[in-house]
Amino acid sequence: MKPVWIVDDDRSIRWVFEKALSREGISYNSFASAREALDALSGGAPQVLISDIRMPGQSGIELLQEVKEKHPRCR
Amino acid sequence: MLADARKKLTSRRPIRTGDEKNYQRVLDRLKPFQDTVEVHQKTSKPSSASSSIFRAEANPVTLPAPNRPMAAAYSGLDLLATAVVALDAGYVVRYANQAAENLLGAGARSLIGQRFPGLFADRVALESMLAEALAVHWSYRAQTVDYERPGMEPTPVSCVVTPIDVPGTPLLVEMRPIQEQLRLEREERLLDQQEATRELLRNLAHEIKNPLGGLRGSAQLLERELERADLKEYTQVIIKEADRLQVLLDRLLTPRRAVQLAQVNIHEVLERVRSLVQAEFPAGISVLRNYDPERAGHGGRHRAAHPGGPERGPQCRPGAPFRGECRPGGDYRPANPVRPAGDHSPPAPQAGIGIASDDDGPGVPEDIRDRVFNPLVSGREGGSGIGLALVQTYVQNHGGVVEFDSRPGRTVFTLLLPLA
């Protein structure tokens, strides 16, 4: 199963998601910005992407649009 | 210099529509007077066809003639919509046109003979302006002064002084009431401040939401780890308080949502508000309704300025009546009309409806009246200060205005909404 991606510039939010996913045994990747996530996209798409909307640089909406273009099956 | 003074007076931007015509009518009316002047002034140079009363300044011996009443000499100025008074060298009023009588609320007979600066609150500043204008012979200066009348509020007036070479009355003062202009400027300034405050709060609310999410999430994770049920009480407190803050922040962020216009019967909206108010105050409040029957069933294209619950409940004494009214807003004026720069005229009226609520509570405290629509400002114990800010935002989004008149025992909030 592909990992869940967490994209949020707030460390505490990422931490909560990481803990919750770990508890359920779900693999994940954490990113502090949309740019970091987009850079990692060439290495493979996530199963699920959880992203903040308002972030420095690219917004979560812009990130989702790019991910959808490249990986239409990603939710 | 005379030509300059006349040019400046006659070419000045009209104060309101119609003044151009009035100026021309003044000039026309003064032509016969000019002829009279020239008959008496045999040695004077021939004047041009466009000569006016100010042309006579070149012939100081003839205007005004000692036996000529001042009112007759200046009678043409009675046609002006602008208030004008002529002063002598001691700043005593020697002539006041009809517009000046109206503005100052006094007849010419009582005005003539009074020292002009003595009519105003800031007489020293006005006197110094008159002295300077007379001394340096500058064409005109403008200053805002408060006109005082016993038992009445001071009226702000803008004065323009024009030195003229007329013996006996070397100063001509034009006055314009600027109360409405000052009110509009103040309202615009307040709206700008409120918008800036709201933007700040929106940003702040968003920034608080993030750590709050972390806080709540951590409490939830912690709760799952706890084996003793009594310890979960602590995490529940954290979660509930975080939720309470979340609701508050969501309400602060709500006005950013785009307005979706739809057909609505305003009476249905008001009835819904009434039922909510009565549910909130089950005992001891009566609601009196006064709806305009012509508006019954009217489908205005406006969403109710009321998203869910009563944002500002009435603040009545227990058992006292609370009155709600819906009436045609015949004199509705848009809140933020598009006007050319520098144009402070009142916006044109358009068809609208007025919704007024009238309660007999303690009223809006004096010290927060200018800020009462700002978020987080409340005069009520336990009030969140969100309600009126939301009301104003929703009403403005619909192109309307919300205003209030409050004193202890009677507070009326009025929503004026344009009809589609």
Question: Tags for this entry?
Answer:
heterodimer, A: 75 residues, alpha/beta, 3-stranded parallel beta sheet, 3 helices, B: alpha+beta, 5-stranded antiparallel beta sheet, 5-stranded mixed beta sheet, 17% strand
Describe this structure in words.
- The complex is a heterodimer of chains A (75) and B (420).
- With 75 residues, chain A is α/β, with parallel strands linked by helices.
- Chain A has three helices and three strands.
- Chain A has a three-stranded parallel β-sheet with strand order 2-1-3, sandwiched between helices.
- In chain A, β1, α1 (11-23) and β2 (28-31) form a beta-alpha-beta unit.
- In chain A, α2 runs parallel beside α3 (60-70).
- The model of chain A has no long low-confidence stretch (mean pLDDT 90).
- Chain B is α+β, with helices and mostly antiparallel strands and 420 residues long.
- Chain B contains ten helices and twelve strands.
- Chain B has a five-stranded antiparallel β-sheet with strand order 2-1-5-4-3. In chain B, strands 7-9-10-12-11 form a five-stranded mixed β-sheet.
- In chain B, α7 (179-225) packs antiparallel against α8.
- The model of chain B is unreliable at 1-20, 30-68, 296-322 and 328-344 (pLDDT under 50).
- The chains are: A alpha/beta (75), B alpha+beta (420).
List the helices and strands and how they pair.
The complex is a heterodimer of chains A (75) and B (420).
Chain A: E1 4-7, H1 11-23, E2 28-31, H2 34-40, E3 48-51, H3 60-70
Helix pairs in contact in A: 2-3
Chain B: H1 2-11, H2 19-40, H3 70-73, E1 83-87, E2 93-96, H4 98-104, H5 108-111, H6 123-136, E3 142-147, E4 155-163, E5 171-177, H7 179-225, H8 232-253, E6 264-265, H9 266-280, E7 286-291, E8 299-300, E9 321-328, E10 352-359, H10 387-397, E11 401-407, E12 410-418
Parallel strand pairs in B: 7-9
Antiparallel strand pairs in B: 1-2, 1-5, 3-4, 4-5, 6-8, 9-10, 10-12, 11-12
